[in-house]
Write a structure and sequence with these properties.
Blueprint (H helix, E strand, L loop, with lengths): L3 H16 L29 E6 L2 E6 L3 H4 L5 E5 L1 E3 L3 E5 L5 E11 L3 H6 L3 E9 L9 E3 L6 H6 L2 E8 L2 E7 L6 H8 L14 H6 L7 E4 L11 H9 L3 E7 L22 E6 H9 L4 E4 L1 H20 L9 H4 L6 H15 L3 E6 L14 E5 L6 H9 L4 H10 L10 E5 L1 H6 L5
Parallel strand pairs: 1-17, 3-12, 3-14, 4-11, 14-16
Antiparallel strand pairs: 1-2, 5-6, 5-8, 6-7, 7-10, 8-9, 9-10, 12-13, 13-15, 16-17
Length: about 425
C-alpha cells in the first residue's frame, strides 16, 4: 500500500510531467548539406551575411549593417565568457593516446581559483579513448619535444569515472597557474561537426573580441561577427551595451537522442549577472536585445532566480523544466527586484547561480525581445529555442537561409530575430 506522502509525491510529479510540452524532435529536422557548414571563418568578422526576421517577414543584409536594424534606446546584452584551450592530449607508457577535455573544476570548485592553482587541481572531464586508460598516471603528449612542456611535466591521474566522463587530477611543476598550463599545453576545442583538427586561426577567431572571463569550452558564436566598428556604431546609436557571463559547457554539442524532448537532459551551466545590470534590467523601458542563445538562457533564467528569492529568500539554480511547472504570478520587475534586494542585503556585487533551463515551444519569454544568433544544427535544443522565439516560424527562416546561400553553424552567417509576440504586445516589463 502506498503511503499518503508517497501518493502526494507521485501526484506532484505527474502534474509536472503533464505540463512539459510534448515535442517530437523529428519535427525539427531539416536537411543540412555538408558543404553548407562553414569550416572556417570569413577573412573579416563583420562581412558575414545577416538575415533579418521581423513581423513574419525575412530579408537579408551584411552583418556590418546590424546597428541600423536595431531599435534605438535598447539594452543589448553580450556573453563575455572566454573559451579556454581545454583539450589536452596525453599518452600512457605503452604509447596509447588519451584525449582529456576539461569541462568544469571540481577541486577547487570556483573557476578563478582553479585557474590560479599552481601545482594541483581536479576537473570533471570528457575522456577520449577512455577504455584504454586503466588508471595509471599519464604524461602529456609532446611530439615536438618542447622544452617548456617538458619542464612543466604535466601529469593526469584518474580519480573516478562514469563511462566517458570522469574526474581527473592534474599535477605539474614550476609553480605556473593552471590557466598558463592550459595556454601552453592545450588546444581550443572547436566543435566536432567541423570535422577537422584545431588550427592556428581558431585561437583567435573561435573567440569573441570582448571575451573576458575564462571558463567556456565552446564559444558563444553569435558574438564572433562583432568588430570594434560595429560595436562603436551600436553605442553611437544610443544603445546601452552590457555583459553577462555564462560558461558554455560541452553539453552544447550533445545531440538530442530521445524521440521526445522530455527525455533530453540539459547540463548545468554556471552564470553571473552584476548588480548594476540587474538594476538596468529592472528599470529598462526599451527593447532588450540578447546576443546569442547563451545570453537568452541567462536573461530568461533570471526571472526564476528572482522567484526563488521571493519564495525561498535566496537565489537557487534554475532547473530544466521550472518554467513549465506552474504559472508564476510575479512580474519581471518584482522578480528582478527580489534579486537586487538579496544582493544588497548580503553586500554582494553579482548573483552567481547555475541553469539547466530548456527553452522550447510553449515557453513564455519574459525579458528578451530581439535575438542575434547563428544558424543551428537540425534536431537540436537550439532549433527549439529559435522556434519558441519566433512563434513556430523557424522553417521560414531556415528555408530562406538555405535558398540564399547562407553558411551554417559556428563559423557561419548570422541572423537578427524580432520576437513575434513582443512586436504585437510591446515589452513585457510594462
Amino acid at each position: 500500500m502506498i503511503k499518503f506522502a508517497e501518493r502526494l509525491i507521485i501526484c506532484y510529479d505527474f502534474c509536472i510531467l503533464t505540463m512539459i510540452p510534448t515535442i517530437k524532435i523529428e519535427d525539427y529536422h531539416y536537411d543540412l548539406p555538408e558543404e553548407r557548414i562553414a569550416k572556417y571563418p570569413l577573412p573579416e568578422r563583420d562581412s558575414s551575411k545577416l538575415l533579418r526576421y521581423i513581423d513574419g517577414k525575412v530579408d537579408h543584409f551584411v552583418f556590418r549593417d546590424l546597428p541600423g536594424l536595431l531599435p534605438e534606446g535598447a539594452l543589448m546584452v553580450f556573453n563575455d565568457t572566454k573559451v579556454v584551450p581545454a583539450r589536452l592530449h596525453f599518452q600512457r607508457e605503452s604509447g596509447a593516446h588519451i584525449e582529456i577535455f576539461c569541462l568544469e573544476p571540481v577541486d577547487p570548485v570556483e573557476y578563478n581559483t582553479a585557474f590560479a592553482s599552481t601545482a594541483r587541481c581536479v576537473w570533471k572531464c570528457v575522456i577520449g579513448n577512455a577504455k584504454r586508460w586503466k588508471g595509471d598516471i599519464l604524461t602529456l603528449y609532446n611530439p615536438e619535444d618542447s622544452r617548456v612542456v617538458t619542464e612543466l611535466n604535466l601529469r593526469a591521474r584518474l580519480v573516478g569515472r562514469d563511462d566517458r566522463v570522469g574526474q581527473v587530477e592534474f599535477t605539474w611543476d614550476g609553480g605556473h597557474p593552471f590557466s598558463n598550463v592550459l595556454d601552453i599545453c592545450g588546444s581550443v576545442p572547436i566543435p566536432p561537426y567541423l570535422n577537422r583538427e584545431t588550427e592556428a586561426i581558431d585561437s583567435e577567431r573561435y573567440q569573441t573580441l570582448y571575451a573576458r572571463v575564462r571558463g567556456s569550452v565552446a564559444a558563444p558564436t553569435a558574438g564572433l561577427h562583432f568588430t570594434d566598428r560595429v560595436l562603436d556604431e551600436i553605442r553611437n546609436k544610443g544603445i546601452d551595451i552590457q555583459d553577462v557571463c555564462l560558461h558554455v559547457g560541452a553539453g552544447t554539442f550533445l545531440p538530442v537522442k530521445s524521440a521526445e524532448i522530455s527525455g533530453h537532459p540539459m547540463h548545468r551551466e554556471p552564470f553571473s549577472v552584476s548588480l548594476d545590470l540587474l538594476r538596468r534590467l529592472r528599470d529598462n523601458s526599451g527593447k532588450l536585445i540578447a546576443v546569442g542563445t547563451t545570453s537568452v538562457r541567462t536573461l530568461e533564467s533570471l526571472y526564476y532566480v528572482g522567484v526563488s528569492c521571493i519564495e525561498k529568500g535566496a537565489p537557487e539554480d534554475v532547473g530544466q523544466w521550472v518554467p513549465y511547472e506552474r504559472d508564476y504570478p510575479y512580474s519581471v520587475s518584482e522578480s528582478i527586484d527580489a534579486i537586487i534586494k538579496y544582493l544588497e542585503k548580503e553586500n554582494l556585487k553579482e548573483v552567481k547561480v547555475g541553469t539547466r533551463i530548456i527553452i522550447v515551444p510553449g515557453f513564455k519569454f519574459r525579458l528578451v525581445d530581439v535575438l542575434v544568433t547563428n544558424f543551428h544544427q537540425p534536431e537540436s535544443t537550439l532549433i527549439l529555442l529559435i522556434s519558441a522565439f519566433v512563434g513556430g516560424d523557424w522553417r521560414r527562416i531556415y528555408n530562406y537561409a538555405l535558398a540564399n546561400g547562407f553558411r551554417f553553424l559556428s563559423y557561419g552567417d548570422s541572423s537578427v530575430l524580432f520576437r513575434r509576440d513582443s512586436i504585437a504586445n510591446g515589452h513585457l516589463f510594462a
